[in-house]
Amino acid sequence: MNKVIVVFELASEEMAKKITNILPEALLLLSSEIPADISIYLKLDADGLWLYSESFAPFHLDLFYAEFIAKRSKLIARELLVRAANPKGGAKETKRALDLTAGLGRDSIILTLAGYQVIMLENNPYLAVILNYLSIKFAKQLPNLQVIYANHNQFLTESTNCYDLIYYDPMFEDGKMALAKKDMQLIDLLVKSHPTLEQNDKLLLWQLLKTHCQNKIIVKRDNKQQQAFANIEPTYSIKGKTVRFDVYQC
């Protein structure tokens, strides 16, 4: 069964329909109707959204996001990504940012907390549903967050919009993944459960990025990795202990 499965209790039916409205198709089931042969699914109950799989204990997404938002809000100016985006201080006005590979949305949350209006692109259907839930459930804390279920190359090819900042984390596309954290392991699980045919033409992507960028392109890299785009040096980089953010001025 390759559909995205969302199991819900009767009181959560409205939310189940809302979070799956970005997918062309999804399978909504009452808690009493869970098939015995499914290995991964999302579940909505009175406590929020959970990810269930054969490989892990149930993962409570509400708790994960609540803790992440609370922790990052306190020291947002110190975040490496924020320093890369605004080296001279915080954004003075709301700016538009595009996250090409949102995953669970951690970096998009950071940009939103720093004052950006963020559009998250995600090509994995399970992750897209989770991100849609994030944007709805945490709308008060993250009022400028939106998700689009799309491949980034296709989206950029068809779009006519420009963005102050375009953010790109090619970790899973490059096949080099630091999976020490539980949430990263879950992303890996979801990506493998619904593999997609990503266009990995970096030259084409670079051309598309330049077309849609008004200010900066930021690329997340492991410190041991070379720059994402061959023979194109970043304007500057902000380095941490294990990762860095390469910044390309448009």
From TrEMBL:
Stretches of the chain forming a coiled coil according to its record: none
Transmembrane regions listed in the UniProt entry: none
Pfam families recorded: SAM_MT
First and last residue of the signal peptide: none
Name under which the protein is recorded: Ribosomal RNA small subunit methyltransferase J
InterPro entries with a match to the protein in the record: 16SrRNA_methylTrfase_J, SAM-dependent_MTases_sf
GO molecular function terms noted in the UniProt entry: rRNA (guanine-N2-)-methyltransferase activity
